[in-house]
């Protein structure tokens, strides 16, 4: 059964690129930066992975044509570009996309997915970064026990990191499970990234982490132009605007496309009130 899109519309801008571009332009006009994510993941058919790469190239071209009205910044999931089919096929797809990104001055963030692809995602970044240092960065997840080492590795490379808590279900052997420890890890990594990373992104809606980052940067006289906050489309929109008004950079992650179900399910899992919202709407006449 395909759920109706209006349910997902709280978190997903639109099902088409055409309808998403005005949403991104509107956020931009409110002083918010954006990154666009064409939804889709864990693709097992090479034809679909090639089609996804072509759609991403088209997206980059559309952002170029928008001529400054929309940020040239996108987020991609490597499992959509064939990572689980064959890593070298995926690498070729990433190269092809990054060539167009370089030509158009677009930044491409490699989202981080489950632990089955963590090592592969970092290793693909390491392979492409030297050729596209201004065009590619990665995401690292505070809940993973390996992340302190990964941060050192990515900082040594010089690549930009988005730090988030982590959204996938992972076993206790690999990931911290309790919120106080995850927050503690997040703040340690925030400190490392702000101290020695390249323009890190602090991606969270958690007031404890946002406030701690604010006080860290004030105490240490860190200039607001050396990092940014990031939040997801549809979550805490008022806080997003308030952070921008305070003079911090804030980027909204804007997902779109018709393959929205896995992304949407992760957002539901994060907060039980969202499930009530769905149930209420499903049974409304
Ligand atoms: C820009 C961005 C990019 C991300 N990229 C990745 C990625 O590549 N890989 C990955 O694993 N994870 C990614 N995430 C997701 C992240 O890992 C967390 O799962 C998610 O952000 C929830 O954690 P939180 O820190 O916002 O805090 P939480 O403690 O979950 O939330 C704090 C508060 O924010 C609000 N809130 C949070 N989530 C919701 C929601 N779903 N609905 C309504 N309100 C909510 C609530 O008020 C809540 O009390 C990304 C998150 C952001 C912001």
Task: List the defining traits of the structure above.
48% helix; eight-stranded parallel beta barrel; alpha/beta; binds flavin-adenine dinucleotide; 285 residues
Ligand inventory: flavin-adenine dinucleotide
- Profile the largest sheet: 8 strands, parallel, barrel
Number of strands: 8
Percent helix = 40-55%
Q: How far apart are the first and last residues' alpha carbons, in Å?
A: 19 Å
Category from helices, strands and their pairing: alpha/beta
Determine the number of helices (DSSP H or I, runs of at least 4 residues). Answer: 11
Shape: globular
Q: How do the helices and strands follow one another from N- to C-terminus? A: HHEHEHEHEHEHEHEHEHH
Strand portion: 5-15%
Low-confidence stretches: none
Mean pLDDT: 94
Radius of gyration: 18 Å
Spatial ordering of strands, largest sheet: 1-2-3-4-5-6-7-8
CATH class: Alpha Beta
Do you know the CATH architecture?
A: Alpha-Beta Barrel
Q: What is the third-level CATH name, the topology?
A: TIM Barrel
Number of separate structural domains: 1
Verbal overview:
The chain has 285 residues and is α/β, with parallel strands linked by helices. It has helices at residues 5-8, 17-29, 46-65, 87-104, 118-128, 147-157, 179-196, 207-219, 237-245, 261-269, 272-282, and strands at 33-38, 73-76, 107-110, 136-141, 160-164, 201-203, 228-232, 250-256. Strands 1-2-3-4-5-6-7-8 form an eight-stranded parallel beta barrel, surrounded by seven helices. Bound molecules: flavin-adenine dinucleotide. The site of flavin-adenine dinucleotide has 23 residues, from strand 4 and strand 7.
């Amino acid at each position: 059964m395909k759920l109706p899109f209006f349910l997902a519309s709280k978190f997903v801008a639109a099902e088409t690129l055409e309808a998403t571009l005005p949403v991104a332009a509107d956020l931009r006009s409110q002083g918010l930066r954006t990154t666009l994510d064409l939804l889709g993941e864990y693709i097992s058919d090479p034809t679909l992975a090639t089609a996804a790469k072509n759609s991403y190239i088209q997206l980059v071209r559309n952002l170029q044509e928008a001529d400054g009205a929309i940020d040239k910044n996108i987020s991609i999931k490597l499992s959509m570009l064939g990572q689980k089919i064959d890593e070298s096929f995926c690498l070729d797809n990433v190269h092809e996309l990054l060539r167009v990104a370089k030509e158009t001055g677009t930044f491409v963030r490699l989202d981080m997915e489950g632990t089955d692809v963590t090592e592969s995602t970092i290793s693909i970044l390491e392979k492409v970064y030297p050729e596209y240092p201004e065009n590619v960065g990665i995401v690292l997840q505070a809940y993973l026990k390996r992340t302190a080492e990964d941060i050192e590795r990515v900082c040594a490379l010089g690549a930009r990191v988005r730090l988030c808590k982590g959204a996938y279900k992972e076993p206790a052997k690999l990931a911290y499970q309790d919120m106080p420890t995850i927050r503690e890890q997040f703040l340690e990594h925030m400190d490392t990234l702000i101290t020695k990373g390249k323009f890190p992104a602090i991606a969270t809606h958690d007031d404890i982490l946002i406030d701690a980052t604010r006080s860290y940067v004030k105490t240490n006289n860190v200039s607001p132009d050396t990092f940014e906050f990031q939040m997801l489309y549809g979550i805490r929109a008022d806080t997003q605007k308030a952070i921008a008004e305070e003079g911090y950079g804030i980027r909204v992650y804007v997902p779109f496309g018709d393959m929205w179900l896995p992304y949407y399910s992760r957002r539901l899992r994060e907060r039980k009130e969202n499930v009530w919202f769905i149930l209420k709407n499903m049974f409304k006449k």
